Amino acid sequence: MQRRALGLAAFATAIFALPWLPVPDFWITQLNYIGLFSLVALGLVLLTGVGGLTSFGQAAFAGIGAYSSAWLCTAFGASPWLGLLAGLLATATVALLLGCLTLRMSGHYLPLATIAWSLALYYTMGNLDALGKYDGLLGVPAIHLFGISLHDERRVYGLIWFCALAAALGLTQLLDSRPGRVMRALNVNRGGGVTMPEAMGASTFRYKVVMFVIAALLASLSGWLFAHMQRSVNPSPFGIKFGIEYLFMAVLGGVGQVWGAFTGAALVKLTEDQLQVWLPKLIGTAGSYETIVFGVVLVMVLKFAPDGVWPMVERWLPKRHRARTPGQTAEPLAARSKPARGEVLLEAKAVRKAFGGLVAVNDISFTIRAGDIVGLIGPNGAGKSTTFNLISGVLPMSSGEVLLRGQRVDGLPAREVARRGMSRTFQHVKLVPDMTVLENVALGTYLRTKSGAFAALLRVDRAEERRALHEARLQLQRIGLSEQADELAGNLALGPQRQVEIARALASDPSLLLLDEPAAGLRHQEKQALAAVLRQLKAEGLSLLLVEHDMDFVMNLTDRIVVMEFGTRLIEGTPAEVQASPAVRAAYLGTER
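Request: output the structure for the sequence above.
Response:
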């Protein structure tokens, strides 16, 4: 980690020293554009690489930042710094509105929507008389900083690269935080999705909007710098062509990597300039042939290096290791009040779910008391996992009621059910494979912590972050996986991944823990260790509802068992009563009752 920090410090020193060295002005110009492009690409790293949301409209947000400041400065003689504030406010407003309208879309609809509003903003800028139509605005003043006029490219260079590197640092800090973990858990292409973060208590739509707005603000900042560096603006640099090019930079450099934004911006800018010189000489005629070359290169990158160039470079850099959090320095997170042993904790009353004409769960009713372990068993297709999803708010019920500590939770979204004290694991493991085991478990502390994106960007959330990571380590120790805390979750076998899910659920300090096939994939000794952990949880007053196919595991662990068949409740009783039931044997073995 120290070697990486020294390398980054050396890079920053070299960057800021260049204008003071006798290097050609052309180099400074190129680096200015690379810095400006990197700012926009950083937003796409967050939005597309981390969040899995494809946008072709970032150039339009750069245009809002550029035009807002240029118009205020030329029409009213305002300061460029006031223009920056106005541009960021205008961009945030437009991004918030567009995000709320489009981010509920999925699949190909979201990229199409970004293309539509990008074109709309581009033609708006090109047709307004106040903005000079397609001729744009001239005479944009230079930025003044501490009484110094940044009127040429060598002088504005330092401000451009300060903004770019500060944005990279802020984004790195954001991703290594409470909101950052939720953002990294959203990308379906990287093993994420909305179901698990919602079950941990996070509003995934809210975080999508936050990422969208941050990406737009970075583009707006780039546009502001561009306008005052060029001393003029017109719509050409803010059209859909540049929107596609920014996305190409992010993908080429490494769309999931912060430093991939700089890599992609540099590769595209430098290669594009060289191709504009070489290709006419090779072909014998002028034209935008570099676009064809970039199209071919993009296809090749997507085929042979889908993670981009930066991950290949990173293999040669020192590995990054998270420093272990010293437990003695971290205060425990606040714990919720627990129900008294024997108190009615959960009541499911005539829970029903129909998918069209298929009734998957048909009027299921049962009760769980505090301190009990209740098993939910039945043949494959009996509706057990669907019942789990109905109780935990992942699926809406067709009819019925679910009460948690006397309060109805049916009809509430999963995050609100989690907030009331219910946590769960999943039949199909839902971990973020490129996050460490510790970070995956720390997702479970979401409802017990409060820091937001702004605090993470400014790095003022570190005390709370230490407490969250300490809690995550405690839960890993609880299930016997503390030695694998810093391992990537995707490197674990299925059995340990299931144990990590349990630790993540425990980190939320639930009153009721729902375990969907927790012993699946575990070896005999691992099952015994898991059973010991669950018994300990029961002794501590925690209540559990579990679905499991391993009958020995269920019978030796549970206090009561609910048996389902074809979506209905077949029988409820103690393990001994269930084992003695002819109806249960018939359901499993197919014998006559």
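The first strand starts at residue 137 and ends at 138.
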